[in-house]
Structure formats: structure tokens, C-alpha cells
Specification:
With 231 residues, the chain is α/β, with parallel strands linked by helices. 42% of the residues lie in helices and 15% in strands. It has a single domain, classed as NAD(P)-binding Rossmann-like Domain (Rossmann fold), CATH 3.40.50.720. The chain contains 6 helices and 7 strands, in the order E-H-E-H-E-H-E-H-E-H-E-H-E. The longest helix is centred in the middle third of the chain and has 27 residues. The chain starts with a strand and ends in an 8-residue tail after the last strand. The structure holds NADP nicotinamide-adenine-dinucleotide phosphate.
Length: 231
């Protein structure tokens, strides 16, 4: 049985990824900042014995280090770096007005944390049959797509794309596939109710893309529908 580790698993796309992978028989290590507050995720874990819930604040190095103890000597087949933040309020992340502290925090969570989690789980990934590290990025991080809004968020996603591309060649030699996936414009707390697709639809699409990834794809930037995305 494959083991999937997901960050930011308590709500939004992360929660639906847990639900989708668990219902298709995979074992899910679902990580979130505050397990005691994660009602929906806890209910899922009570219904299913293939879902376990653990505390993880991806912005806290000691919390990420503790993840190694949670995983122990188990193999991780898929690491999904899903946790993310939108950054400072819309009007405070642009040319006229930038909240620099908020930008730094956005980088810490969206760009640096995925690498830190990957470093922590690298040995566990290398043990799997078809190990994949998947980072939920955004079309807004594509250099080739001009959306002149949300400078902090867009730059943090563009940077994580680059970081994962940089890591890909060395990981490929260890058999680990690197993928950056755009989940669509999704009706979550981040995307808002007016977004285009439900978290369930996004997660189902992402799962089928993740299931189809092989080392030949690495590194890739794809959409939740499986189309190649411009870098
Ligand atoms: N929604 C969209 O349209 C859209 C589009 C493109 C990309 N994305 C990306 O998709 C991913 C999921 O987004 P979403 O739409 O599901 O957003 P969401 O509903 O706002 O959920 C964000 C998740 O990230 C977690 N998180 C934030 N900071 C964290 C930290 N320091 N440690 C651990 N977990 C943390 C949140 O946990 P708490 O509950 O503890 O805050 C929550 O579980 C993000 O990477 C986002 O950038 C979303």
C-alpha cells in the first residue's frame, strides 16, 4: 500500500487530497498545524484506519525536524507540499505598497518550507518504489504568465518552482520524481467562493496526475487536468 504524506491537510485542497487518497486505499499521513482544531480531518481519521493525523507547522524548523520521528523507518511514496498562504492583504503586496515582513513570511511558508520538508523526508522517499515529491504551486508563479497582482504570493510560487527544479537532477539520480502542480482556481478559503472549481474536483484531478507521474516526467509543471504548464 502506498503511503502519502500531505502538509496543510486540515482544510481546502489538502483535506480533499487526504479524502481522495484514503478512499482509494492509500495510507495517508495527514499533517496540520493544530490537530486538536482539525474537526473535519479528525472525523475522517476516526472513520478510516488508513488516515493518521500529526502536528506540523511547516514554518517551524523544530516541528519539521520532528516529522522524521513521525515517519520513522517507513517509506514515503508521495510527499505533497500543499500548505501555503496568500501573503499580505491584496493592497499591501504590490508596486505601490509592499508589506516586507509579510512577504518574508510568505517566502518562508511557500518557498523555503517545501525544501525543508523535502530534506527531512529525502531518505524516506528514496526507499519507495516510485517516489514523488509534489509541490502545490500556482499558475501565478509562472514567469511566462503575466498577472501583475499579489507580488509576494506570485514570487513565492515562482521561487518554489525554481527551487524544486534545482533539486530535481540530484533527486532523479535517487529515483525521486519532482513535480510542481497548479491545482486550478479552487473554492477554498484562499480561492474564495467565486473560484472556478470545487476542492473535490481539484483533488481528484491532482490525484490522477500524481498517480501517473514517473521519473521520465521529472521535473514537470502541470495543471490539475494533467496539461503541461508554461514555466
Ligand atoms: N485555492 C486556489 O485557488 C489555489 C490556486 C493555486 C494554488 N493554490 C495552492 O494550493 C495550496 C492549498 O491551498 P488552499 O486553496 O487549500 O488554501 P487554504 O484553504 O487557505 O488552506 C491552506 C492550508 O495551508 C495550511 N498552512 C498554512 N500555513 C501553514 C503552516 N505554517 N504550517 C502548516 N500548514 C499551514 C493551512 O493550515 P491552517 O488551517 O493551520 O492555517 C491550510 O491547511 C496552497 O499551496 C495554495 O497556494 C491554491
Amino acid at each position: 500500500m502506498e503511503t502519502i504524506l500531505i502538509t496543510g491537510a486540515n482544510r481546502g485542497i489538502g483535506l480533499e487530497l487526504v479524502r481522495g487518497f484514503a478512499s482509494s486505499g492509500r495510507h495517508v499521513i495527514a499533517c496540520c498545524r493544530q490537530p486538536a482544531e482539525a474537526g473535519d480531518l479528525q472525523s475522517l481519521a476516526e472513520e478510516r484506519d488508513n488516515v493518521e493525523v500529526h502536528a506540523l507547522d511547516v514554518g517551524d524548523p523544530s516541528s519539521v525536524a520532528a516529522l522524521a520521528g513521525v515517519v520513522g523507518d517507513r517509506s514515503i511514496d508521495v510527499l505533497i507540499n500543499n500548505a501555503g498562504i496568500a501573503g499580505p492583504s491584496f493592497q499591501h503586496q504590490g508596486l505601490a505598497d509592499m508589506d516586507y515582513e509579510g512577504w518574508a513570511e510568505t517566502f518562508a511558508i511557500n518557498t523555503m518550507a517545501p525544501l525543508r520538508v523535502l530534506q527531512t523526508l529525502r531518505a524516506s522517499l528514496a526507499n519507495g518504489a516510485n517516489p514523488r515529491v509534489v509541490t502545490i504551486t500556482s499558475q501565478m508563479g509562472a514567469i511566462g504568465l503575466d498577472m501583475p497582482v499579489m507580488f509576494a504570493y506570485c514570487s513565492s510560487k515562482g521561487a518554489v518552482n525554481k527551487v524544486m527544479r534545482l533539486a530535481a537532477p540530484e533527486l532523479k539520480r535517487e529515483g525521486i520524481t519532482v513535480a510542481l502542480l497548479h491545482p486550478g482556481f479552487v473554492q477554498t478559503d484562499m480561492g474564495g467562493p467565486g473560484a472556478e472549481i470545487t476542492p473535490e474536483a481539484s483533488a481528484q484531478g491532482l490525484i490522477s496526475v500524481i498517480d501517473g507521474l514517473t521519473l521520465d516526467d521529472s521535473p514537470c509543471f502541470k495543471t490539475w487536468e494533467g496539461n503541461d504548464h508554461v514555466w
